[in-house]
C-alpha cells in the first residue's frame, strides 16, 4: 500500500508511445501501458504479456497471437482489433518515430476479438523482440479515435499496472493503481509519483531527507556514501548500457586498423572504471552488453600498453597523432572521461584536443563526421542484439553509428544473422561479429555500467531489468 | 576667506586611511590576486592539470593544503592557476561592455533626438531580452568557452553603462561649462570626449566594479549548466560546479574555489566603494 | 490624475520592444547549430524519420516563411507547437508560469523585507560597528555562487534540521510557500545585499539631508524623522534598482529552479534550448520579455506613486 | 532692550576634521530680546548657519561639537539639557526657517501634513484637529486657498510659496523664537520683499523674537532692530541697527557697508554717445523662442512655453546694456538665443551685419569667434577636471588667434587682467573660491578676444564684497578693451551701477527700455516700479515696499498653449 515517490532527472515529454524515442518516456510507459510480449526480469527472455500465447508459421512469416482477456483503464475491453490498430499505427502514422522498425510488418489483422494475425514482408527473427518495445504498446482504438492523439498523449487510456491520474508538467507524473489491469492483484502500491529533480545532489538529498522514497540515476561518486546510510538501500541492477569511444574512420590515419588498435591500447579502461565510475562499472570487451543475449564473454581485451601503442603508431606512420575529441557539455561523466583519456593518450604521444559543445550540437557534429573521437553510450531497447548490431556494424543508413566503419564481411554477416532461425547457429554468428568488431576496432569499448538507484529501507522490490523496465507492479512500500 | 587656526592633530591610522580604507583593502586584494596570476607557474606547487590516481579525493593535508579532486589534481594549484582565467574573465567581461556602453551612451546622450530614441529602444529590447536565451544561444552558436562568454557579456552588458553615461550626459550637456564650450566654438567631438565624458564616467567606473562580480557569477552559472571553459582548464566557477557532486563527501573541492570567487568579488566591491568615495559618486 | 496618463500610452511603446525581441530570438535560435529532429530521434534516427519530423513542424520551409507563420500564429494568440513535448507551446508555458512567478515574487518580498530593516539599522548607526558589519557582510554576500549557496541551505535546513522541504513545488498554498522558502532565501541573500547597499546609501544621505534636518528642527523625534521622512525619500532610487534586478531575475531563475526542482519556465527554457525546441524557446523568450517590460511598467507606476515630483 | 529671551555666552564650536581641529565659532556671546529682530550678517562661511544650528543642537556633522559656552533659554542651558527635553525645545520653543525651502521641505509629503506633523506631535492633536490648525497656519502665511493647498506637494509651488510653507512649518508649534537662515536668498527681489514683510507681520502678531541671518545689509537695514556681524567664527561687533550702519567700529563692517550695491556710486556711469558709429553691433528683431514641454514620440503636440516673445533690441559697439527681470522672465534664454545656443523659433539676430539665421555656418563661426559668455554659477561654468591654465590654453588653441608658442604668455596676461595670481594656471576649480572661479570664467571669455561679452547673472552667487570687486573688474575691462557688454541680472542695483542702458523683461517680453538714470528715476511700467521698490535699501529710513503688496505672486512660468510657431 502507499504511494511510491521516485525522483528522476527530467520530466516526460508525452504519453503517446509512437512519438518518443527517449528513455525518460519509455520508463514510465512500461508501467502504464502493456505490450503484447514482455521481456522478463533478467532481460534475457521474452514472456507473455497481453498476448497469452503465440505461434509462428514454418516460413517464419506469419505470427498468430492469442490476446488475453484484458481491459483498458476506462473499463472497455481490450481486443485483437486494438492490438492490430496499435501495430499499424506505429508503422504508418506520420508522427511515428518508429515506422522504420515496423516496416517489416505486411498486415496485422484481428481474425477475431481474441486473435491477432501478423504477416511479415520478409523473414525477421528479431520481430518478436520488437513487440516488447514500450513504444509498441497496445492503445485503445476507440479511445484514440475519440479523444485524439494530443489528449491521449496527455492522459492515455492504457492497460498497464497504473493509470495517469495527473501530470503536472515539469514537476511530476502522478500514477494511480489501475483496477482494470489484468494482473491487478499483483500490484501492491496505490500509486506512483515520478518526480523530476534535475540536480543530482538535490535528488539524493531528497531521499536522504526522506522526502522521496527512491531516486534513480545515482551518480557514481555518491554510491559509497549512500551505501553507508542505514536508512537507504542502493540497488545496482545490470543494464545494457555500454560506453564506448567513437572513432571516425574517415579521418586521416584513423582509417588504418593498426592506428585504431594502438588507440585501443593507449587507453587505460581500468583507470576510467576507477576514476570515473568509482568502481561501479566493469571493463567492456564487446559491443554487446554483458549478460545480454549472445554476449561473448571471452572476447579479446587489449591490454593497456602505451609504449606498444607508440611503437605501433610509429610503424603505421602516425606518430604525433593529433585528434579532435568532441565532448558533450553538461555531462559530467563524459567530461571526466575526456580529461582522463586526454592524459592517457598523451603518454602514447597522441595529442587530444578537447572540444566541448552543447549536447545537441555535439550530436550534429558527430553526424556530420566533424570529429575524430568522442565518447558515447548505447542502451538496448529490445532484447535481440540485431537492432544494435545493425546500427553499429550493419552498414545501414547511419554510417555504422557515424564511425564510417567499413567491412563487407561484417556487413554480410549482420544481414545473415537477422535471418537465422536456429538459435545455436545464430549465437555463433554473433560471437564472430563481436570478434571481428574487436579486431577491426570499429570503436573502443570502454565499460559497462549498471543502473544505480537508491531507495529508502522500507521500499522493497524496486528494481529494473537490463532494458530499463521498472517492475513497479512488484514494488512494496511498507 | 575665513581665517581660522588649524591645530595639527595626532597621527591616527584611521585618519591616515580615512576614506581610502576601502580603496586600500580592495586594491590590496586585487593586487594579491594579480600577483598570484602572474606568479602562478612559480607559486603553484603542482601542475594544475596533472592527474595522480594515487591521491584522488585527498582531504587537505601538508602535501596538498587544499586537498585534491577526483583525478588527484591539486586544488591549491588549480585555484592559483584559476586566478589567471578568472581575473581575465572579470576584466574582459567588464571592459568591452564598458567601452561599448560608454561610446553609445555618450553619443546617445549628447545628440539626443532620433539617435537617442533609436539607441534607447535597442536598450529596451536588450533589457527585456532574457539574458539566458542570449547567453546560451551565443554559446551554442560559437561553442562553449571564454570567447563566446565574452561576446555574450558584451552584447548584454553594455546596456547598463550606456544608460549610466547617457543619463549623465543628458544633465552634463546642459551644464554651464558644456554650454560655455559650445559658445567658445569647440567641436562636438572635443566637447563630448574631452569635456563631458571625463566628468560623466565616474559612476560607470564605480559600477564596473560591482559588474565584475556579476560577470564572475554569470560565469559560474554558465559553468553550472556545463557550458564553462573547456576542460581541463582550471577555472573557479567550473571547479565549484564540478565539485558539486562531491559536496557531501569532499567539501574542499568546492570550498576553496568558491571562497576565491567570494574574495575576488569582495575585492572588487571594496575597490568600487573606495572609488565611489574618491570620485564622489553616489549610488 | 494626469501624472498617470502614461499608463495608457506606455503600452504602445512595448510593441516595438516585443517585436524586436521576437525577431532577434527567432534568428538567434535558428543560428544555433543542431537539429531538433535529430535531438528527439536520438541515436536511432533514420533519414525518413528525420524528414517526417521536419515536415511536421515546418522546419523544411524557408526561414522567412517560418517567421511569417510565427507572427501569424502570434497574432492569433498562438505560439506554435513544441517539438519535444508535442503540445501547444502556450499551453505548455501556462503550466510553467506559476512557479517562476511565485519564486520571483517571493524572492523580491523577502529581499525587501530583509533589506529595509538591515539598511535602517546600518544607516542609523552609520560609521559605527553595526554599519561596518552590514557593509562587510553585504559585500561578501554578493560573491556567493547561488547554486552553491542553495545546496548549502538545503543541507542545513532540510537534511540536518528538517524544517523545510528539500525541493519541488507542492500543491496547496501552504505547501507551495514552504517549498519557496529556501529558493527565495537563496536569491534574497544576494539580492537583498544589493538592495541593502543602495538603500543604506540613500538613507545615510537622507539622514543628513535638509529634509531630515528640517524635521528635527521642528522637534520630531528620530524615529519619526526616520520612518516618515528618511524612508519614503530613500525608496525611490531603490525601486529602479529593484526593477532592473527583477528583470535579470526573471530570465535567470534557471539555476535555482534546477537546484530546487521548481517546475518553472527557466528549466523549460534550458531544456528547450538544448533540444532546439524552437517554438518553446521563442515562446518562453516572449513571455520573459513581456514580464520584464511589465515589471518596468509597474516600477514606473510605483515610482510615480512614491514620488509626486516624477512625471513620465 | 528688554530682558533677553535667549542669551548666548561664549559659545565655542570646534570641528575635528581630517585636516585637523578648527575652531568654527569662537566664543560668541549674543542676546536676543523679546519681540526683537536680530540681524546676523557676515560673508559666506563666516559661521552664521553654524551658530544658529548650535542653538538647537543640530550641528551638521558629528565631527563638529559644541565645546564651550552656554545657550540660555528661560534659565535653562540648552547645551546641557537632555535630548528628550531638546525635542520639546525644537519646534515648540525655537522654530527654524531655512535658506533653501526646496531642499528642506519633504518632497514626498503633502505641505499641510508637514505642518500638521509637528502640531500632532507637540500638541497631541488628533488628525482632524491638526489638519484644521495647519490649514489656519497656511492661511496666515498667505496661502490664498489653504484648504485645497493643504494637499499639494512642495514642487507644485513656486519658490516664494515654498518659503511661505517653510515659515508655516516653523510656526506650526507656536515657537517663541524664530531663526530664519537666509530665508530670501534664493528668491527674487519682489518676492523677497513679500517674505520679509510676512516675517515682520508675524512678529507683530505673535510677539516673536527673530534671528534673521543674511549676507545682505540691505535686508538687515530694512527689517532688523539690532545687528551682529560675524566673520571667521568671531563676533566682530554688535549693536542697534542704526548705530552700526552709521558708525561701524570694525573696518570689515565699513567695507561691507560701502560695497553694498544700493549705495549710490560715486562715479555715475558716463554714457558714451554713439559718436559716428551708426551700425549696431547686435540687432535682435522680433525674436521668439519657444520650448516644447511634455509631449513625446507618440503624442505629437505637447504644450509650448514661450520663453522669449517678440523681443527687439539693438546694442551699439562699446555700449553696456543691462537686462533685468525676475526669475523666469527669459533673460538667459534671450542671451542664449543671441549667441546661437538656443534654437530660435522666429525672428532675426544680426551680429555685426550677418544674420545668423540665414547664414548659419558662417554666422555661427563669427559669433563663436567674436562673442563670449560669462555664467552665473562660477563653479559649474568651469570644467572641474581641467586646470585653469589648460582651460585657457585650449580656448586659445582652438581659436588660433595667436601662435601656439605665445599661448603660455597669453595665459599669464589673461590671469593678470582678471586679477588672479599666475600660479592659478595650475589650479583646478575645486581648489578655488567662488570669486576666483568667476574671475577665471571672465578670463576664459576674454581669451576669445571678443567684441561682445554677455554676462548672465555672473555675480549672484557671490558675496557682496566680492560682487563689488567683480563689478569693478568689468568696469575696468570695459574701458581698457572697448568691450561691448550685455549684463544680465535680477538685481537692479548692480545694473544701475554698471550699465548705461537698461532693459526690463517680464514674462518673455521687454516691458521697458531706456537709459539707466531714466528708468530708475522714472519707471514707466508698473512692473519696473515694483522691482525697484522691492530693493532693500541700506538706508533704514528708505522703507521697503512702498508699492502695494500683492499676496499672490505673478505667475512666473507662463504656460501658454502653443502660442508660438510650431
Ligand atoms: N559639516 C561640516 N563639516 C566641516 N565643516 C563644516 C561643516 N559645516 C560647516 N562647516 C564649516 O563651518 C564654517 C561655517 O559654516 P556656516 O555654514 O555656518 O557658514 P555661513 O556663514 O552660514 O555661510 P553661508 O553664507 O555660505 O551659508 C565654514 O568654514 C564651513 O567650512
Ligand atoms: N530648455 C528649456 N525647456 C523648457 N523651458 C525652458 C527651457 N529653458 C528655459 N525655459 C523656460 O523659459 C522661461 C525663461 O527662462 P530663462 O532661464 O530664460 O529665465 P531667466 O530670466 O534667465 O531666469 P533666472 O533669473 O531664473 O535665470 C522659463 O519659464 C523657463 O521655465
Ligand atoms: Mg549658511
Ligand atoms: Mg537665467
From TrEMBL, chain B:
Topological type in the membrane: Multi-pass membrane protein
The keyword Membrane is annotated on this UniProt entry: yes
Coiled coil: none
Subcellular location: Cell membrane
Alphabetized Pfam families for the sequence: BPD_transp_1 (PF00528), OppC_N (PF12911)
UniProt organism field: Rhizobium sullae
Matching InterPro entries: BP-dependent_transpt_permease (IPR050366), MetI-like (IPR000515), MetI-like_sf (IPR035906), OppC_N (IPR025966)
Transmembrane segments: 21-44, 87-110, 122-142, 148-165, 205-229, 250-271
Keywords in alphabetical order: Cell membrane, Membrane, Peptide transport, Protein transport, Transmembrane, Transmembrane helix, Transport
PROSITE patterns: ABC_TM1 (PS50928)
GO annotation terms (biological process): peptide transport; protein transport; transmembrane transport
Recorded superkingdom: Bacteria
Chain ranges of the ABC transmembrane type-1 domain: 83-272
SUPFAM superfamilies: MetI-like
Protein name (record): ABC transporter permease
Protein family (similarity comment): Belongs to the binding-protein-dependent transport system permease family.
CDD domains for the chain: TM_PBP2
Annotated GO CC locations: plasma membrane
From TrEMBL, chain C:
Keyword Flavoprotein: no
CDD domains: TM_PBP2
UniProt domain ABC transmembrane type-1: residue ranges: 97-299
Protein localization: Cell membrane
Keywords: Cell membrane, Membrane, Transmembrane, Transmembrane helix, Transport
InterPro entries noted in UniProt: BPD_transp_1_N, MetI-like, MetI-like_sf
GO cellular component, one term: plasma membrane
GO terms of biological process kind: transmembrane transport
Keyword Endoplasmic reticulum: no
Transmembrane residue ranges: 12-32, 102-122, 134-157, 177-195, 242-263, 283-306
Membrane topology: Multi-pass membrane protein
Family: Belongs to the binding-protein-dependent transport system permease family.
This protein's name: ABC transporter permease
UniProt organism field: Rhizobium sullae (Rhizobium hedysari)
Automatic annotation (TrEMBL), chain D:
GO terms assigned for molecular function: ATP binding
Domain of life: Bacteria
Annotated region (Disordered), positions in chain: 546-566
Glycoprotein listed as a keyword: no
Subcellular location: Cell inner membrane
CDD domains reported for this sequence: ABC_NikE_OppD_transporters (cd03257)
Alphabetically ordered keywords of this record: ATP-binding, Cell inner membrane, Cell membrane, Membrane, Nucleotide-binding, Translocase, Transport
The keyword Thylakoid belongs to this UniProt entry's keyword annotation: no
Xref: SMART domains: AAA
Membrane topology: Peripheral membrane protein
Residue ranges occupied by any ABC transporter domain in the UniProt entry: 6-257, 282-532
Family: Belongs to the ABC transporter superfamily.
Protein name listed in UniProt: ABC transporter ATP-binding protein
Protein's organism: Rhizobium sullae (Rhizobium hedysari)
Lineage: Bacteria, Pseudomonadati, Pseudomonadota, Alphaproteobacteria, Hyphomicrobiales
